[in-house]
Structure formats: C-alpha cells, structure tokens
Backbone:
C-alpha cells in the first residue's frame, strides 16, 4: 500500500455513545472479526470505569477497504488523560466524532472536538444510535451546527448496533480524510502513540512510522529517554498482534524491542534509526513528561501484606507509565508509598485494579495536591533555609515552611467544562461557587442545555466535587476537566491535637478557605474512632503558630460502674464480665497505639485518613 492508499483515523466519543460498538461493526464489515465476536477488551471494563464514565480502549486495528488500508487507531480515553488523547491524535489525519442521538453533545464531545480541531485533523461528525426510540436526529444536527458549525448534510447518521448505514462510513473516511504525510525514502523515524506491557515480552509500543522502514533486527534509539534497542518483532494489529516482516512509513503497528517498562514507551516518544546522531534528528512535537497532579498515601490494611503489595504495585505501575511511586512511612500506618496520579479517576482506577487484579487490600489516604511557595527575594533566607531556591514545592505537612519566609503560595487550578440542563444551572453554579470557582463563558447547546465553563482549585475538585455534581443533577450533568495553571492562595497547616499532644499523621496543608470544613470532618471522624478512656479526651483541630482552634470535641470518660469493675469491686456476675473485658483488651492491645496517654486503635488512623 503506497501512502496515498492509507488512511489513519480514530473514533472519539463521550462515554457510552458507542465507540466500542462502532469499532466492532467496522471490524466485522472489513472481515477482520466474525459477526457477534466481541473483542475481549470490551468485556474487561472495570466496575469503577463504568461507574465513573471512563471510556475504555476500543481497539487499534488494520482494516482493508477496496484498495485502501485503513488504520483504526485507538486513543486512551480516560478523563484524566486529556493530554494523552491530544498527543495520540497527532498520529491520525482524521477522526469520527461520535454523538449518540438520544443524548446529544456532552462535555467530552466538546473537549474531543477542540482537541482534534487544535491538532488540525479532519473531523467527521457521526450521529449514532438512530435506531433508538428516543433518538432526536434533528436536535443533534442543530447542536453540531450551533457549536461546531457542521452542516446537517455532512453528518453521517448510523446505528452501530444494528449496523444501519455503517458501511457508508468507509467511503466518507477515504474521501474526506487525507493520506498520511510520510516519506519512505528517509531513514527510519516513528512516533509512539500508546503502549501496553506484557510480562513476558516487556513493553509493547504502538507506533506510526513516519519515515523509512522498520524491520526485525534493526537498531533504533529513543529520543527523549536516549536509549538504544534492537527490534525483536514488528507487526500490525488485526486487532490481535500479527507479526509482519516490516512496517513501512504510513503504517501503524507494534514494536517489541526489549523495553523493560511502559515508561520507556511513553506516548509522544520519537524512535529513530540508531545510525543517526541524536543531534541530527528532529523529535516529533508534543512530548511531555507526564506529571502527576494528585497524590495519595497508599498503605496495606494489614502490614504483613507489605511485600506482596509491593510486588503488585511494581507490576501494575509497569503497565501504567503515568503513576509515580515513592516509599513513604507513617508511625501509625507503617510502611507504604506516596503515589502520584494524573487525577482522581486515575487514582480510583489504580486502587480498583490493585483490588481486582491483585486481590490487594489497601487504603488510599485522602488525596492532596502539590502547592508551590515563592520564597521572599532575600538571598540570606534562600541560602539558609531553601538551598538557594526561589520556589519550593509542598506536598507534605512536615515540609511546610515558615510563612514569614514566603512571599506567596500558589495552588493548581483546573478548567472544568460542564454540560447541564437549563433548569439545573442554578445548583451547579452554586456548587462551583462554594468550591471557590471563577465562572467562565456560558453558551447554549440547544434550547434545553448549557455549556458552562468554570475555573476551580484542583484541591476542591479532588474531594467529592464529581459525586456531588452527579447527585445534585441526578446524573444529568456531564463534565470534563484539564489543568489550568496556578492561582495565588492562602495556605495553612492544620494540626490535630489529642489531649494537647499534636499527632503528626493527621497534619495537613490546605487552603485557608477549606480549613473549617476539613477540621470538622477530621475532628468528627476522630471522635467516632477513639474509644472511651478512663479520662476525658479532648480533640482539637488547630491552625498556625498561635494554635487557633477551628474545631473541637470531647470524649467523655468511661462510666463509673465500669471503673469500679476494673478496680476489683466486683458485684454479682462481675468476674465473668471482667475476664471477658480483659481478654478482649489483650487482643486489642497489639492493635492499639499510645498517643500520649490515649490509646487509639490502628484502624482509627485508617478510618480518619482514608479517602
Ligand atoms: P465506553 O467504552 O464505556 O466509553 O462506551 P463506548 O462509547 O465504547 O460505548 P459502547 O460501544 O460500549 O456502547 C454503549 C452502549 O450503547 C452499549 O450498551 C451499546 O450496546 C449501546 N449502543 C451502541 N451503539 C448503539 C446504537 O447504534 N443503537 C443502540 N440502540 N444502542 C447502541
């Protein structure tokens, strides 16, 4: 297939609008899979992905149509991975923007449109699910016209389920999407757009060959990680891997070359002929090191599981280049890790995979974000206390600087796109205001729904924003978010005291505006978790050097008759009760931790800190 007979395209859609179903139908029509044969990946969906509305991968596959070779390229569709989606779009020359006729344009449709638009790829609007009773094709046409200026006559109307009109897409793809702009005469150069990890073969990189040819035995280099590899296998996806002799420029396929982790096969990485000097090679644009935005502590519920868990985490992270993992420990929770994620959904998916695939029993502590502090422009302070740095990053309460040294604190912000029914505008705006948001543009999608843009502190979004949004709108709102710089903020260190003793495990750095709610939450949880003692227990949440109390609670001492019992004043039947109590306490003792003079069960720590 010469390049002009190749088309590289992708299907993008809001969750549940039919991406996997359409991919299956196209594969069937092209004779790649038999009718009714579902691809395993579709069945692999995790519960949390379903609940959270995360689009899982459909598949990457080679389809033959007439004398054309069509590469259906799958993009990672995770909401937290917008940056990844836009990078993998760079290997496509066109997309099918799928919109379900019963639901119309949703938040992810809008995000996907703009990403494709900015990447300069051809966008083909496709209205799906036209077989449904609730389908309103005209309405969706109007939405596509209003928002993106598509002509109704250019929208392809299909039912991926029944197959109605799906075959017509092939012609549209061939006619409207340009062939890849590639050169087979030049030395080899390719772009990685996705990767998976195989425990036997290492990382498998999915690539678009832009220049030259790739063959088994060939030596190649990676641009950003600057490593050399020898190709042990190349092939195409059908949609299962099928080994081929070579991959020519314009082709999409897989490469196995002894990469040990998925990180080496990062999305956006450039591979090139090892005979070329790195200086002479131009890397493809768009490579960015993935940086986590949300951090959480991860601990085994039972410390004895530490070693097993360590292995599970290592294996899982081989597969997931976006997580960052550092050892962490806490006097109360034992050994664990500080794990960085791209977002909360990513965090939940990681936790769910540990539980489902590795049977691991873990707790993830309340997530937090990384703040920045700009140190005062004072040479002496910088040298003495901040190793000469003018800016520091704060993740842990233990690293909180003396505020008199700091000129200002900054917190990460996100841009949230919300699609909401008109009558729910009020409650949604109320929620965003409560979360310290700044309102952006509002536009109408049709007579029933609005697109609202808000800029919110990430720290607010990671608590329970999306759950509250879903609850408040009975699931009728859809959303999408992306990083959007930093805002100046007022940060404080919140400390918890039990009978005046500070418990460092519970200390947190948060924006002052969130301190009151967080204090109440933590004090309330502690009050519930700490058992009665022989004396009164005072719990306080304090802030700042002056230890101003933001919230407090007391736990009353045990009742007198039980104290008598302990002192040996045993009445009728008392001995039995006492023995029972003592035995019970013996068992419990090992699980208890003394904080000053107060006994706290280990579970209390988990229950207070967990997400
Ligand atoms: P995620 O992978 O979860 O993002 O969803 P998706 O976009 O891949 O959608 P999927 O193909 O899983 O379809 C979602 C649901 O819609 C499934 O129950 C499909 O059977 C159904 N569906 C897809 N296309 C059609 C269609 O044309 N008509 C009808 N009636 N149902 C459809």
Residues:
């Amino acid at each position: 297939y010469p390049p002009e007979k190749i088309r590289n395209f992708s299907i993008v859609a809001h969750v549940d609008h039919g991406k996997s179903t359409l991919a299956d139908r196209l594969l069937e029509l092209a004779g790649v899979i038999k009718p009714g044969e579902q691809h395993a990946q579709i069945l692999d969906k995790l519960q949390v992905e379903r609940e959270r509305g995360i689009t899982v991968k459909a598949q990457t596959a080679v389809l033959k149509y007439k004398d054309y070779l069509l590469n259906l390229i799958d993009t990672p569709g995770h909401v937290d991975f917008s940056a990844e989606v836009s990078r993998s779009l760079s290997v496509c020359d066109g997309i099918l923007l799928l919109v379900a006729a019963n639901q119309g344009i949703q938040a992810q449709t809008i995000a996907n449109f703009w990403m494709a638009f900015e990447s300069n790829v051809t966008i083909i609007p496709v209205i799906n699910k036209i077989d449904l009773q609730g389908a309103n094709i005209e309405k969706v046409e109007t939405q596509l016209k209003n928002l993106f200026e598509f002509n109704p006559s250019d929208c392809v109307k299909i039912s991926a389920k029944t197959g109605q009109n799906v075959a017509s897409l092939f012609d549209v793809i061939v006619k409207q999407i340009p062939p890849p702009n590639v050169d087979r005469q030049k030395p080899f150069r390719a772009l990685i757009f996705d990767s998976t990890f195989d425990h036997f073969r290492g990382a498998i990189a999915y690539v678009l060959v832009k220049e030259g040819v790739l063959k088994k035995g060939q030596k190649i280099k990676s641009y950003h990680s600057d490593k050399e590899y020898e190709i042990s296998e190349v092939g195409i996806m059908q949609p299962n891997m099928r080994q081929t002799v070579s991959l020519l420029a314009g082709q999409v396929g897989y490469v196995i070359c002894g990469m040990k982790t998925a990180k080496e096969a990062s999305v956006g990485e450039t591979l090139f002929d090892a005979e070329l000097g790195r200086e002479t090679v131009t890397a493809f644009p768009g490579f960015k090191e993935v940086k986590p935005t949300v951090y959480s502590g991860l601990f085994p519920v039972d410390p004895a599981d530490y070693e097993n868990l360590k292995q599970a985490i290592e294996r899982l992270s081989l597969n997931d280049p976006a997580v960052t993992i550092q050892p962490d420990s806490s006097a109360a929770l034992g050994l664990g890790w500080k794990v960085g994620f791209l977002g909360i959904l990513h965090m939940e998916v990681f936790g769910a995979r540990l539980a489902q695939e590795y049977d691991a029993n873990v707790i993830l502590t309340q997530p937090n974000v990384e703040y920045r502090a700009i140190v005062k422009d004072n040479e002496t302070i910088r040298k003495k206390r901040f190793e000469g740095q003018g800016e520091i990053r704060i993740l842990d309460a233990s690293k909180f600087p003396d505020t008199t040294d700091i000129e200002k604190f900054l917190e990460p912000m996100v841009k949230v796109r919300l699609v909401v029914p008109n009558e729910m505008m009020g409650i949604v705006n109320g929620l965003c205001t409560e979360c310290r948001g700044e309102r952006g543009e509002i536009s109408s999608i049709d007579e029933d729904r609005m697109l609202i843009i808000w800029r919110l502190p990430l720290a607010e979004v990671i608590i329970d924003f999306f759950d509250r949004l879903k609850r408040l709108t009975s699931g009728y709102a859809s959303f999408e978010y992306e990083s959007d710089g930093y805002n100046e903020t007022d940060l404080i260190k919140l400390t918890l005291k039990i009978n005046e003793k500070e418990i460092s495990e519970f200390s947190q750095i948060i924006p002052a505006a969130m301190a009151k709610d967080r204090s109440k939450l933590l004090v309330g949880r502690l009050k519930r978790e700490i058992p009665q003692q022989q004396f009164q227990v005072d719990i306080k949440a304090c802030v700042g050097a002056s230890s101003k109390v933001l919230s407090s609670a007391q736990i009353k001492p045990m009742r007198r008759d039980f104290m008598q019992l302990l002192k040996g004043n045993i009445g009728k039947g008392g001995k039995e009760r006492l023995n029972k109590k003592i035995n019970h306490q013996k068992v419990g003792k090992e699980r208890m931790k003394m904080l000053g003079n107060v006994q706290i069960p280990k579970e209390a720590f988990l229950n207070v800190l967990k997400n």
